[in-house]
């Protein structure tokens, strides 16, 4: 019988395999548009959150500040993004997508959708349970210091876990959060 340790290793190996496949899909799209994978990730992130300081982008993408600065410089040169004053601190600047950057982000999302939206063999409940398991794993990796930024419900101060038969609950938005409703990257997330 498979031991718990072996099961954990198989779980991680499966997640890594999935990660590699998704990375390959993204790389293909990036190459088509003559941008790097990191540049594509920057565009995706800015399209989702609006604006970020350079240091924040580096943390969220788990790369160093010089690395993300190189990617930003290349995108700036292509006219994909621009810098603006940070509304919360006039001395700081944030990076935002330009008009053509937003158009590119939309195009990338349209091209990525069919690749990321696999025809799943699992039913809805299994898929929702898998989502919770993955978010649990991400939380564990954050606790272990492997990743720095995690804005999912499971690490949010507003989240009240399920107390069966009740589902979980978001105290900030005052909505029920069944496993399928858990957010992976929430702009209202409050770190514990
Ligand atoms: S604020 Fe966002 S991350 Fe936090 S519990 Fe609510 S939905 Fe989840």
Please give a structural write-up.
With 192 residues, the chain is α+β, with helices and mostly antiparallel strands. The chain has 2 domains: 4-116, Winged helix-like DNA-binding domain superfamily/Winged helix DNA-binding domain (Arc Repressor Mutant, subunit A, Orthogonal Bundle), CATH 1.10.10.10; 124-181, no CATH class. Helix content is 52%, strand content 13%. The chain contains 6 helices and 6 strands. It has helices at residues 4-32, 37-49, 54-60, 65-77, 99-116, 124-143, and strands at residues 51-52, 81-86, 89-97, 159-160, 168-170, 175-177. The strands form 2 sheets. It has a 3-stranded antiparallel beta sheet with strand order 1-3-2. A hairpin with a 2-residue loop joins strand 2 and strand 3. It is globular. The mean pLDDT is 90. Iron/sulfur cluster is lined by residues 153, 156, 158-159, 170, 172-173, 183, 186, 188-189. The site of iron/sulfur cluster has 11 residues, from loops.
List keywords for this structure.
single chain, 192 residues, alpha+beta, Arc Repressor Mutant, subunit A, 2 domains, 3-stranded antiparallel beta sheet, 6 helices, 13% strand, globular, binds iron/sulfur cluster
Helices and strands in order:
Blueprint (H helix, E strand, L loop, with lengths): L3 H29 L4 H13 L1 E2 L1 H7 L4 H13 L3 E6 L2 E9 L1 H18 L7 H20 L15 E2 L7 E3 L4 E3 L15
The chain binds iron/sulfur cluster (SF4).
